[in-house]
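TASK: fixed-backbone design
INPUT:
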């Protein structure tokens, strides 16, 4: 993804240099999850003993070698769209849309905590899309951006 196409951060101008650097690292890290198994090798943006947690399933992965192996053995084709990256300092959040094996899009949030210039902890939450209840229709605004090929 060219730098010009990457999401911009929501920080003030005094932290723009740090913000862009962190935004690029998160974007590169998230995109690594959507690569084919043979391409899932780029962990240079993570601290060697980084932690990856999925609170919904109770899973915790520790260390780059473990991240690399479970991603290499992932049993599904993953499509990933980074919708927005924002944050500041040592904590950044990526809002994503993800689907598996061409199935329905799910939505998630990935929280990245930095130690220096490396991601030290990532916490991922996701949920299936659901129909908006009709009773709220009169108050809601236009729908937000949908993934490029959403049904």
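OUTPUT:
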């Amino acid at each position: 993804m060219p730098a010009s196409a990457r999401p911009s951060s929501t920080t003030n101008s005094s932290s723009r240099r740090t913000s862009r650097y962190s935004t690029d690292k998160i974007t590169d890290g998230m995109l690594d999850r959507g690569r084919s198994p043979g391409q899932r090798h780029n962990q240079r943006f993570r601290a060697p003993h980084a932690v990856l947690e999925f609170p919904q399933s109770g899973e915790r992965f520790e260390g780059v070698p473990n991240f690399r192996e479970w991603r290499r053995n992932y049993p599904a084709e993953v499509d990933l769209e980074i919708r927005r990256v924002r944050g500041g300092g040592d904590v950044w959040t990526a809002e994503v849309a993800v689907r598996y094996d061409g199935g329905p899009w799910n939505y998630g949030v990935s929280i990245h905590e930095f130690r220096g210039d490396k991601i030290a902890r990532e916490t991922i939450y996701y949920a299936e899309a659901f129909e908006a209840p009709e009773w709220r229709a009169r108050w809601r605004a236009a729908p937000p951006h949908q993934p490029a090929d959403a049904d």
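COMMENT: Residues 1-22, 33-41 have pLDDT under 50 and may be disordered.
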